């Protein structure tokens, strides 16, 4: 059945969606995942074209949208990397979006500036999907993160979450925190160095939603309580003094030794990837590691999203 | 019915085509546009592969060919941008074309050097389509420009045209002027600074075809007479002395104020896009603006072209 | 019939295959070539996705894999060039491969480091195909080279081969030499300057296989005996002293004049392409030239490979 509330919808922020919306998405994603596993995916979007406008590079998110579209028989057009840079210098964003709006059936956009996706949605007649803009919004990442939590625990409510790393500039972390305001986490720990704490507007939203949260500096202090640890990268460049970075980096690195010493056996570690060294490779083969599952979930969740928005019957 | 005159044909210059050829193209394009609007495009080119050899960057033309191919179920392969540059440095053009000729069913080429498309057509057995080479030829742009005029006015003959901007180095402008020699415009104004006037060979062709044309320096002098104003960009770098550019730039910028003051209500403004500031954004929402329609027409016109050349029955 | 020995197989080195394996591959390739010629290729791989992970640039190999996949109805995702470079700097190879393993049904990898493809195959669950890594292995190139010899001579055994050029660093030449150890060449001449002779491990393998080979410095000395001349490029940068290069370059350039003077009429010249000036353009139109045929054979051979590995019934 075509989901009317979803048809033609823009995806700008995770906060545009209700729990019911996400429930529909997750059910559809589950069907997609089943069909992928069984190797029999119907060509629901044959003849459709998805524009991928990546003004900022992103291999993982881009390829996952591309895979999602192509698994369903759709085609993609677009640009990324160098080409996008030169585009960004010349033509204004509105004209570029109008071009894609004339060619494609939906537009996926990534852009470094906050608000670009919303602006694109205002210009375009076709649905626009934000694949990350500015420092806060990456709604499809949050969708697949929540889907993965639900797959692992059977629920998103009632769990203790820790979000670790750069909560100030990292859009995946912000989106995940905002997404939790749609649910009832038992407790949320925001673990970061003081310089990289979550932005006031994000914390205001947590308060408004009544989410019990606490800001802490050291993972060790809370690790034993967590059901879900969402790790993100801390970039050395964020620190005015590199020695400051060297001092803190150890506190934000997740190792097998640390987990085995201090975490609950049920703990699951998420990461939007790519990672550099914030999760050591020896975690990969432990039951804690859920980030590869999470990465693979990008495809069925984005397949579900595209088919709901484009009105394809599953 | 397969159009025999079109099957396997190279597209090098707009002057290779007759009015009858273009009539067939426009009728096919109209069918394509209808099918696009109704969302039921048959996969006429399924299994076919179109090579896109963009030795010079072009997002708009490239994506429009790619969309046209994919809407009809064809696939594309190829290169653009940086990669093309490094290719251009190493292997000779003939070997690169032979490679694509061995892989694909048709080759779309853009290249900075005049004559590249013709040379490629001599090397390749498969049809070659010029997506812009050198300073004069961009035949598929001219096709969609003419198609748009016809869609707007019901005819291409009998209208008063102004072509504005860089008529010396701009290949879209030259191709449009040359294309008009296949028709009977009532009058053609070539509006440019003296340095950027149309090339002698283009004017010779106008004379040969008996097109009444006049070269003028200021748009204001002729704007009131025009049915169609074709705007192109003037690059500052064309002027040996930047102060010269500053002096003239105002005369070549099309604004809402100017149009409302001096143009006929029926005037329609075309532009091959991308634009920088030669048409101000406040024109976009006036009835004068036809350039977004024109850009969208790139897809059905190129769909028609590909299906005629590859012998697909509509 | 699905070829069980091929299903899900990694393709790392040509030496992983037996003559029987290659016989199956060549028969399948012949069917593919017939279907391509007749313009009726079944969509055997519809719904499948092939990841193209080109960490090192390669237009020809990449586009030939892409064409092979798309001719059979499969889709491709991936990266190449600049983007690949920045990837190579950040994320580790294993994580990148895991990402592609989660998205696609097979992974084609090119990488400058020896052993990358094998490492990727260890990380990935899906089949991995080496599209060239390090200095020795380019198995799919060797496959199409052998297929071309067989098409030209009806056999690979019993012929006299010359392999010319950079036998030390050139992976296409090394792979071809290694491939010949699976067959019974009558004689194999390794023609190169002393600095660029074949590596010890390659020669050890020739000896082990009982292939009669000889290292020579001048093509002229052996040209008259050859049935097959496999030419590869010598890069000026390989010589510590450029004057050394200038001295030898003439001995390694294949011209029409040389061939007409000294070669047997049955000689056929192969080259993995791209070439710069090691075969002059006047050879192209002689019966000696088999390198364009060889290049075109990349598509049916890779179509055969993909369909065997992915278990598609021809």
UniProtKB/TrEMBL annotation, chains A, B, C:
It catalyses: carbamoyl phosphate + L-aspartate = N-carbamoyl-L-aspartate + phosphate + H(+). Pathway: Pyrimidine metabolism; UMP biosynthesis via de novo pathway; (S)-dihydroorotate from bicarbonate: step 2/3. Keywords: Pyrimidine biosynthesis, Transferase. Residues 9-151 form the Aspartate/ornithine carbamoyltransferase carbamoyl-P binding domain. GO terms for molecular function: amino acid binding; aspartate carbamoyltransferase activity. Residues 159-308 form the Aspartate/ornithine carbamoyltransferase Asp/Orn-binding domain. Gene3D superfamilies: Aspartate/ornithine carbamoyltransferase. Its EC number is 2.1.3.2. L-aspartate binds at residues 89, 171, 233. Carbamoyl phosphate binds at residues 60-61, 110, 138, 141, 273-274. It comes from the Archaea. It is an enzyme of class 2 (transferase). GO terms for biological process: 'de novo' pyrimidine nucleobase biosynthetic process; 'de novo' UMP biosynthetic process; amino acid metabolic process. The keyword Transferase applies. The keyword Transferase applies. Belongs to the aspartate/ornithine carbamoyltransferase superfamily. ATCase family. PANTHER family: ASPARTATE CARBAMOYLTRANSFERASE, ORNITHINE CARBAMOYLTRANSFERASE, MITOCHONDRIAL. Catalyzes the condensation of carbamoyl phosphate and aspartate to form carbamoyl aspartate and inorganic phosphate, the committed step in the de novo pyrimidine nucleotide biosynthesis pathway. Heterooligomer of catalytic and regulatory chains. This is Aspartate carbamoyltransferase. It comes from Pyrodictium delaneyi.
